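ingest -> validate -> predict -> emit
validate: passed (alphabet ok, no gaps, 375 aa)
predict: started
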Amino acid sequence: MDKSSSSPKAFPSVQTLVLAQIVWAVLALLFFLLFSVSLPGEDRPQWYAIGTTVFEEVAYLTAAWLCFRNWRSPQIVSGRNVWLCIGLGVSFYFLGGLLFFYWETVLGQDAAVSPGDFFYILTYIFLILGIILAVSSRRLSLEMWQWGVVAIIAAISIVIAWFVSSPPAGGNVTQSLLIQPVAAQTAPATRPTTKPVVKASPKVAPAAKPKPAAVASPVTPPAVAPVPAAADKNALTVEAATPTAPAALAAPKVEPPEWVKSLENVLDPLKSYVNGFYIVCDVLLLILATTLLLAFWGGRFAQSWRMIAAAAFSLYIADIWFKYTTTYVPNYQSGGFLEVFWVFSGVLFGIGAALEHDLSSRARSRSSGRRRASL
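emit:
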């Protein structure tokens, strides 16, 4: 009797868990709103990258703990294997986020494929497997309009995936737009320096008419001409040397270890395969989330699985945004505003797991009470 009464108190109540998750999501939203936009020409500070990583990692670590709690509970109704797969997927995302932070922020590397991508690949595999098990455990009796919704969502997701994964034929649009104003500004600056050099010898006398010294002695212009030319050369050498002085005084970039460079060289040929895998999994995850949302729409446990479907949608939005920026935005730094949906995804996975555990516990307590009453 004591053990049964003390076991529910070992964990916080479902209201406390859901409220804590919502507060964490609101704090993450405010953090991204206030600090995601950096000044023009400046990089985001390192403390911002640390903050975004903390919000993501805490959300996914909490979700993994709640999912594994459902896996260990014999009272769970939707199946323990379902929550084992989802818990493994969320855990691998947590590990991949740590490796990605170490690779990008600590080492300062911008590799196409990092060791964290292998954990992200496992994340997709186990999340998709868990959602498939959840959908297959429930008899699908979707109506025609519901299958139509699934087909429309699938078509839209395929079009979006094709758009974000295929850059334009003329190259990067954003990069070309940024290069054109720079070329337009530098062209007028170079023209005045080239014209006097071309027209120096034939038209020296008309240009020197206002000067009386030049008119008095015709021999002096050739003698005076080399002196400014030499002075200009010296001035150019001094001006060319002055910009290099601050660069020499700047702090040298810390070179990564040799094993990091060698590992990047090994992983770089896998870039196209990894990106293709992400695109296919994003589309499949969105289709499964839509099917899951429609399959559990009117049941007793619909509330928890709506949260799981919303978590899959949030993961899709953040992944598509990141893929779009890395394809169309040159020198993109992670930490954009829409990346907050990664935090929302972890929070929603945790809320769904907490609601599922609470609903399963109440359903089992009601069934056991009915059995006692019948006896």
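The chain is about 75% helix and 0% strand.
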